[in-house]
Amino acid sequence: MTTSHTSDENTNPAAANGARGGAGTETDEAVRAELARLRDSIDNIDAAVVHMLAERFKCTQQVGHLKANHHLPPADPAREARQIARLRELAESAKLDPAFAEKLLNFIIAEVIRHHETIAKSA
Amino acid sequence: MTTSHTSDENTNPAAANGARGGAGTETDEAVRAELARLRDSIDNIDAAVVHMLAERFKCTQQVGHLKANHHLPPADPAREARQIARLRELAESAKLDPAFAEKLLNFIIAEVIRHHETIAKSA
To answer: Which of A49, A84, B41, B70 is deepest in the core (most CB within 10 A)?
Structure first.
């Protein structure tokens, strides 16, 4: 044991923390642990979403080739309107902001249409 | 190569398509069926993504409350840089455009930060 002026702090760090009155390393530790737990879940979900979207683009690439080979237009507004209405409903039942779900789908569709146009040009 | 009734269709599919006018031939039927099959998969994937994101926002709402209660800033640039680097790697291994994955994550994070700011204001 090292020599010190206030042996309490050396022999019992937890009690010493408590004595500091919650200014808090113990609380900080708990907050950090909870934040790390939530971030691990977020990272797992993000990995899942990336892999789902990789699979989605495999499908839309096939759609792109099909459309290019049969001279169908890259965009399909009627289909997109149906997709948006359906996703808004799904979002609502999953307690996700429907407006966010719609913005996200539009973001993904814009990327898909860019892909379709590239495929059509090179067809 | 697809089966077709006339040599014209084999040598000049564009003209053949034009001549058919899109009215219910065998090829059109096959194309429609293939498009429907791919779109069903896309719809399934979209439903999965919506539910994953609903779960993600449940996590980030908890992070938002944790941050607001402990007076931590809504945004965390160091954490975001790590997330982006990781997602770009995951995207690459899943053959998804890493630039698209990064844009998508930024899009989602922007929404999350808006939520955190709302929580912080009401805390």
So the answer is: A49
**pLDDT tens for residues A73-91?**
888 899 999 999 999 999 9
Name the amino acid, one letter, at B45: I
Q: What is the ipTM of this complex?
A: 0.76
Taking CA atoms, what residue in A is nearest to B51? A94
pLDDT higher than 90, residue B100:
yes
* Per-residue pLDDT at A24: 62
Query: Look-up: residue for tokens 């077709």?
Result: B4
- Inter-residue contact A13 to B17 (CB < 8 Å): no
CB contact under 8 A, B90 and A49: no
pTM of this prediction? Answer: 0.76
Q: Are residues A83 and A105 in contact, defined by beta-carbon separation less than 8 angstroms?
A: yes
Q: Please tell me which of the candidates A34, A51, A54 has its beta carbon nearest to residue B66.
A: A34
Which chain A residue lies closest to B48 (C-alpha atoms)? Answer: A52
Interchain contact, B91 vs A49, CB within 8 Å: no
Instruction: State both tokens at A100.
Output: 């966010």
CA dist., res. A94 & res. A101, Å (int): 11
Question: Which domains occur in chain B, in start order?
Answer: 7-122 (1.20.59.10)
B121: exposed, middle or buried (C-beta count within 10 Å: 0-12, 13-18, 19+)?
A: exposed
Query: What is the reported pLDDT for B41?
Result: 98
- Other CB atoms closer than 10 Å to residue A10's CB: what's the count? 13
CA angle (A86 as vertex; A76, A115 as ends), nearest 5:
35
